[in-house]
Design goal:
Blueprint: E1 3-4, H1 29-48, H2 55-64, H3 69-98, H4 105-126, E2 129-130
Helix pairs in contact: 1-2, 1-3, 1-4, 2-3, 3-4
Length: 141
């Protein structure tokens, strides 16, 4: 689900309600940049820390959740997605080991899915829009 946030250089006038993230509010360029970083940090942390992609979004979310509802939303969404990717990675690697390598495409598929959806979400955040990752379990609310 996407909704548009009008671009503004002034601080936001109103914050979106926690239960209704689709209400448009002004978002600063700094907030959009932090939303973009929340998604891309998960992707970067996945490659740098060999699977712990949730660390980047977790740090950004904890640092910025009280200063901006927009960054709070994107930080939680990125954190939830990276936690789901971690679980899927463990399952895919276990399946590959159990099948003596026949399931080798599964870990690669998880990496591709992680890359594609993280980039899409980062672009939406940079546009000032909310983005919900499809088909994930939201553990952090």
């Amino acid at each position: 689900m996407s909704s548009e946030f009008p671009s503004s250089e002034e601080p936001p006038v109103a914050e979106p309600a926690a239960s209704s993230p689709s209400e448009p509010v002004p978002v600063t360029q700094e907030e959009r940049t932090w939303g973009l970083f929340a998604h891309l940090s998960g992707l970067l942390a996945t490659f740098v820390t060999a699977g712990f992609g949730f660390l980047g979004p977790l740090i950004i979310w904890l640092a910025k959740k009280d200063t901006s509802k927009f960054v709070d939303y994107h930080g939680k969404e990125a954190l939830n997605f990276q936690l789901n990717m971690l679980i899927l990675s463990v399952i895919a690697v276990a399946a590959t080991i159990i099948t003596c390598g026949f399931a080798f495409p599964l870990p690669m598929a998880v990496v591709v899915i992680n890359c594609v959806f993280s980039i899409i979400a980062a672009l939406k955040a940079n546009e000032g829009k909310l983005y919900e990752y499809p088909y994930i379990v939201r553990m952090v609310k």
